[in-house]
Design goal:
By secondary structure, this protein is α/β, with parallel strands linked by helices. The protein has helices spanning 16-20, 28-42, 62-66, 84-87, 135-149, 173-181; strands at 4-7, 48-51, 71-75, 92-94, 97-101, 104-108, 125-128, 156-158. It starts with a strand and ends in a 10-residue tail after the last helix.
């Protein structure tokens, strides 16, 4: 059975992103090798992987990209520099994508969009990257929380590889929703 996976902001070959995201890697080589290992531990040859941008920092790392299994679909990010060799690694390259995953409609972009198709009805799901673990991500979470209190569930989720629930591994939509929409477990201090 073919599965669909999602991930963003791999930044293959990007040394400075290790410090920016406080990634648990000592070098670009270690990061690249671990991304390949985790990717290929879940993605099989025929699976579809949707990458929400910022996949490869330096085109000299194209062999790393080629070693990732599955049919790769790129939603362009601000750091994607696409040459002919990189283009061959992807089945499609678009600035924005709307797909079906089971019964869900999924809106894919590199950038978070507050007013994506179906956002105020909680009808569709928006997956994005770009904001890493920076203040921008905190702001996005605050906005989502505000809308949720007004009965506008914002089903939008950061699929950046550095997010704890992503753990540098492509995830299925069910895995993402389980991590993000699971009911909160109440603890004694919540009472």
């Amino acid at each position: 059975m073919i599965k669909k996976f999602y991930i963003s902001d791999l930044h293959i070959g990007h040394k400075n992103v290790i410090k920016l995201d406080n990634r648990p890697f000592g070098s670009v080589q270690e990061m690249n090798e671990e991304i390949v290992r985790r990717w290929n531990s879940v993605v099989k040859k025929g699976d579809l992987v949707y990458l929400c941008g910022d996949v490869i920092w330096d085109n000299s790392y194209v062999d790393v990209l080629k070693s990732l299994r599955g049919q790769k679909h790129l939603v362009l990010g601000n750091h994607d520099r696409i040459n002919a060799e990189i283009r061959k690694c992807f089945f499609s390259i678009k600035p924005y994508k709307k797909i079906k995953d089971g019964d869900e409609t999924v809106i894919l972009s590199h950038y978070p969009m507050i007013a994506y198709d179906g956002s105020f009805r909680g009808r569709n799901i928006h997956l994005y990257g770009h904001v890493h673990t920076t203040n921008e991500n905190v702001i996005m979470e605050d906005i989502k929380d505000k809308y949720a209190t007004e009965d506008f569930p914002m089903r939008m989720y950061n699929v950046g590889c550095m997010m704890p629930y992503m753990d540098y591994t492509p995830r299925t939509l069910d895995e993402i929703l389980l991590a993000m929409e699971a009911p909160k477990v109440l603890k004694s201090e919540d009472f």
